[in-house]
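Protein 1 of 2
SEQ + STRUCT:
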Amino acid sequence: MPDFSISALDISILIIYVLGTRIIFGLYVIKKYKKSSSENYFLAGRNLTWPIIGLSFYVSNMSGSTFIGLPGSGYNDGIAVYNYEWIPAVILILFVIFILPSYLKAKVYTAPGFLEKRFDSRSKLAFSGFLLFANIFIDAASALYAGGMVLKVLFPEIPLWQTSFLIAFIAGIYIYYGGLDAVVLNDVVQAIMIFIGGLVIAILTYDKIPSWESVVNNSSPNALSLIRSPSDEIMPWPGIISGVLIVGLYFWCTNQFVIQRALGAKSLDHGRWGSLFAGFLKLPNLFILVLPGVMAVSLYPDLERPDMVFPALAFDLLPVGLRGLMLAALAAAIISSLESIYNSASTLFTMDFIKHFKPELEDLTLVKIGKTSTLAFMILSALWAPQIQYFPTLWQYLQSILSYVTPPVVAVFVIGIFWEKATGSAAFYTLVFGVTIGIVGWIANEILGLSEIQYLYASGIMFVLSVCIMVFFSHVKVEGVSGKELVWHKKYWIDETSTLKNGSLFSNYRVLALLLLFITSVIVVWWN
């Protein structure tokens, strides 16, 4: 086992980096928006360009839950967890073709706001309430738990709940003053640090193992296979479609704390290029995060928890100083993701609930309410975070609960965008009944153990059930249909084709999408 003692130099670097970046960017944003409007605070003035969108997309997903969860899952289960990393490349292609144009056409602040324009306010409020719950008790709590685990390694005598509150406080205060603009500026720096830091640890891990054969011999027979048998307990191959794809569609296409960057895009082109850029950035995670976790099995066969593998590698392989910088990058990634989540939650609460029931409120009042709600969400997520330690791995906690509760959301968005006859009542009932059934199913199967169905299969069942609910109520309860202009039609593709012919090859998002799909296919086939 590595020595987890930390030097004064490492602690100094950690503190200076985390607080320094937030002070610098925070002061910049405060000066930039002295009288912040709701559009400036929640959507960065709708002026984000594609590199910032792509890097910020990447960092919003590369939270502590990913930084800790991917190596931990690689250590525990092999590379199958990488299916959650290449699938987003495919999903983001679908996102830029079919979904993002409708979002930007609707000119909304939030994903639930899109449901209001496509269906009605009931769907908006139901989905916004769901997202608030998910942002706080799933996304934010997971990021806090990951950060708490890292700090627990450094300071084992401090309880997890105290470290969770400290991290939440730093993130909450920063986003209180800065809004989305402050988030994305920090994300650009963190993306570079995460990528470089992960690459360094991956190279040093490979250098330390006796040989690749030792990794193979110390791993389970299918640890280095992406595609596994239908009976596999962790990643059955049909589950990639029935579960990973569905959860991914929710996360990358409807989860407010991710798509908020795309909603703030300068134009549709910038939103598309940035989203595809994020897809490219996801692909190296196999080499810089998942495989180091697999290789660590031959180095530390007796770790107390798989989620400790990344801190173990950082302390064992990096020298003093560089170790502090890596921990700083990890801490900043965790805090950056939290800042995104808190900003998302405050946007949902303010724009979907407060403005809905009090439309007469002025912009500055809405911004003040958004800032105050950030502090409340900070406390709630910190209170729940310590409960995650009772699950085998962080990644399992995340994916199991999402597999049950997100399929109804995906069904509503997919059918709403592609089927003109889908009604508002059908969308509302699908969200209410579907999510409720999903929560009951998760508790019954994953907590109480009343059934042994694999959660990725449960996701597929929930999706089919949700589609049936949506179609049933669209036919049974006949009513007028709104938002038909937001439904995708083949005519849009044909008209766009002639427009794209006039542009350069490298600015054509379809060419970039095909390149992304090709590279993804090569990686999946190679590691099959």
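Protein 2 of 2
SEQ + STRUCT:
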Amino acid sequence: MKKLREIEKTSRLMRFDFSSPKPYKTCVLIIVFSIFFGLIIFQGKSMLMIIGYSILIFILPAIFSGIVSKPLSESLGGVFYLRRSMLLSFLCLLIVGFISVIGFLFNRLSISVVFGYSSIIWLRHLALVGTSNPNHIKSFPGSVLQTVLGFAFSLFIFPSKPFLWIAFTIIFFFSAATVVEIAKTPVKKSFGENALVLLKQALGHLTNGSLELESFFEKNGEEKNIDVGVISFKKNERIKASVVVPGIHPGPFGSLGGSDLPEKISRNFDYPVFVFHSASTHDENPVNSDEVAKIADAVKSCVDDAEYVSGGSRIVKKASKTAVFTQFFGNTSLIVHSPLFPTDDVDPETGKTAVLEADNAFFVDAHNNLEKGADSVVFGSSMSKEIIQLSKNAVSTAKENRIDNIRVGVSSKRIESDDVGKQGVQVIVVEANSQKTAYILWDGNNMLPDTKKKIEKDLEDIVDELIICTTDNHAVNLTMDGFNPVGSSVKNTGIISKEVVQQALNNLEDVKVGVYRKKIRMMVSGKGSTKKLTDTVNSTMSILKYAMPASLGGSVLACTFILYLF
């Protein structure tokens, strides 16, 4: 097994992206904090003077820079949003305000204002080159704007030395530029790409749905043969539902590549389509949405080309350190691995070997039991061997439980929750010789252990066997820590599952089964590409952990030295 702690650490970079407050709310905060700082540093003045000074020193530079930074940055080829601009100005105001309070306490108010406004170019420049325009020169006007406004408005109150303003600002600017260049090095070395351009594209996707970042995956992907397995259920001449097991991974995040895979496939059909998670990892992420369309086309072909027959088998469960379920549909078995302990992805090699041992089968990773830091299953590990052996045993036993007819019922429900994708929860109930088995498919990225237990408890008397699965949809990963399994937000999962299962039970009908598999060529992330990207990003963060404090510390020392000299 392989620890996913490094990949998990990288996914948590999503916490740096969040929905900024509406501009008017930020303006209110700017005014409130400005008056607060004014009450402290202008003690002894009349309230009218305190308000007037606060407006000049704090409010006007913050609000003007927040409003003007957007058109200024965009006129120079950048992309900047008013929400982010106002929030950045507010954060810089807090820095200036706290430094001013410290200066007041040490009777150095005037110089502290100079230092505070000069220092904020460090933060503003990092933010602008990272989110607006990676060009230092074109980002500089927006970076220095609040500093210039602070200098201009403070002249009405404090005598200032322009030399100190200029010297301090230059020091902090070049300090920020140095940090940026250091941060760009690992990505440039590994992929030949500008890390800031990639960051801008990622933020563009998160902000307005831009798919520019897919071009990076396309450049670094590789073409592979991908298996698409389909089990279709037909009532008379009507397709009642289809189960799809594609040999790709539904990532990386948002709606990029294979993310939101169930919705991207299902929207092409006028009947229910259940997109299960195969044995796959981030190395099998489709590089763009067009590649996903190939899967939908393959599914249509499989449904049309399949030979529809009656029969299947009762479901068989084999368990030891983990659990495997197997059920025949026609002459093909569906193998579902359902871990008994927190586990992440099962790798493709394990799934392929289990299928080979079982002869004619599709392998599904239920992906239903996750905690932070959980292991993935890699080929050759003890868990991988266990899954392969259990699959072989389960298929052998299922062959002895073949029957001539099965009944199938389906149902679904959309869920409004940030840990559940657009397909919500879908259920297939299969009745084989009076044995009723419910396959519950939640459209999310794995499931909390307690949530799984709750669903199992609420449905223990409803069906004979219960298989809880998730689609591993990475569209739900846009959270503060990148960890958002089913159960993180959605409530009443047991009640919802029970309701949908009951509807599927009421929908049971005799069906014929059509099974077909198709091999297609697709561009995917490629072997080792995700690990390479993960290692590169984590290397960058490790460097910045030391470079940023060193940069700020060096700037402060340099400014102190200049102040001592002059």
